[in-house]
Design brief:
The protein has helices at about 20-30, 30-40, 45-70, 75-100, 105-125, 135-155, 160-204. It has about 200 residues and is mainly alpha-helical. The two termini are about 35 Å apart.
């Protein structure tokens, strides 16, 4: 996954926009219209599920590339979780409209994402330093990014649809609590980030 705070320490080399992990994150975002078209235009839920699953898997790959080849960047620390959040939000909304995702699951996931997004805006307004994504946060997002396409595949025409539907429930039962737990884990970090951000401005 991308540059999480729990990952092995890698020397920070500034924004470095033109790195392979950042290009992967941008490519993931550019695939969003394709995903929407597959669901509503082509009406091919299986192909859309495969694409969404691949986009979720590349989240781990770009982080491995960043650490393995020393391509960690400040831009990547922002771009990667932003791509994660947008991918999940678009998938949730599309599947609510499509009817392939149980509404209670979708609403719980959307509520969590909404709270985190609002909290990030509030912290930014308070001058907090940036909070790195935690291992729990990335794991919860990863599990949800596989649960969601599995629900889509489970509502498709393929013969293994029932198996995908069962797997989707397994992933969501494990992933959604982790998703919420990770949000709770950011609370003490948020207070530290506000203090450190204000201290840095004072020192400056």
């Amino acid at each position: 996954m991308s540059e999480a705070s729990d990952a092995p320490s890698v020397p920070d080399q500034g924004w470095r926009p033109f790195t392979v992990p950042n290009l992967i994150s941008l490519a993931r975002l550019c695939c969003l219209p394709w995903f929407v078209w597959l669901v509503f235009g082509a009406e091919d839920r299986w192909a859309a599920a495969l694409l969404l699953g691949a986009l979720g898997a590349t989240d781990w790959f770009d982080g491995w590339v960043a650490r393995r080849f020393n391509q960690v960047s400040e831009l990547g620390k922002i771009l990667d979780p932003t791509a994660d959040r947008l991918l999940l939000l678009v998938a949730l909304v599309v599947m609510i409209v499509d009817g392939s995702l149980p509404l209670p699951i979708a609403m719980l996931a959307l509520f969590r994402e909404g709270v985190v997004a609002v909290a990030a805006l509030v912290l930014g307004a308070l001058g907090a330093r940036k909070i790195d994504v935690t291992w729990w946060g990335k794991t919860g997002t990863f599990l949800m990014m596989f649960a969601v396409p599995m629900f889509l595949a489970g509502d498709s025409h393929i013969g293994a649809a029932d198996a995908f539907r069962i797997a989707a429930w397994i992933f969501v039962v494990v992933g959604l609590p982790i998703h919420y737990w990770s949000a709770v884990g950011y609370i003490p970090q948020a207070f530290d980030a506000v203090r450190e951000g204000r201290a840095g401005r004072t020192a400056g």
